[in-house]
Design goal:
With 169 residues, the chain is mainly α. The chain has a domain of 88 residues. It contains 8 helices and no strands. The radius of gyration is 18 Å and the shape is globular.
């Protein structure tokens, strides 16, 4: 998730500027510093007191509902893009092509059993809500991104059902 979000921020930011500016924008994200701090604390096995972990856990549990509310707000304020062909390609790539690639690559990477099932099903999930947040933050094409999230979520009921049946979960 860290690598994906970092790359998403970089590419979203680079669309409106140069590479140096995009790197600068990436290093303005607090997630990078939180990741580095967490990695250091993990390496040195620093125990976290409950006074810190309880609020962090509470914030973590609130993240998904808050992001979904933000997506709903974005959907209500953004008209559905009329670029149906582009959206269709994006949704097809996300829901179908990525799942087919996972089916092909999973055995090559030595994944079997539950790990294989999870990797394949995860690869066919709809576009992430964080994509819309990145598009808004870095002034990318929020209308397209929001529409892609909406339609990939709408059609994922069908594609995920097929994937789950395929992997035998």
């Amino acid at each position: 998730n860290f690598a994906g979000n970092t790359l998403a921020a970089f590419f979203a930011s680079r669309g409106n500027g140069n590479t140096r500016q995009a790197l600068g924008n990436v290093f303005r994200l607090p997630g990078i510093y939180a990741f580095i701090l967490a990695l250091i604390l993990r390496i040195y096995q620093v125990p976290m007191p409950a006074i810190i972990m309880n609020p962090v856990s509470l914030i973590g549990r609130a993240a998904v509902p808050v992001m979904l509310m933000m997506l709903g707000l974005q959907l209500s304020q953004t008209p559905v893009s009329k670029r149906y062909k582009e959206i269709g390609v994006g949704v097809f790539l996300r829901l179908v092509v990525s799942a087919v690639l996972a089916i092909i690559l999973a055995p090559l990477m030595g994944l079997a059993g539950l790990a294989r099932q999870v990797a394949i099903v995860q690869s066919g999930t709809p576009a992430a809500v964080t994509s819309a947040l990145m598009a808004i933050e870095f002034d990318a094409d929020a209308e397209y991104v929001t529409s892609a999230i909406f339609f990939s979520t709408l059609f994922s009921g069908v594609t995920l059902t097929i994937l789950i049946y395929f992997v035998g979960a």
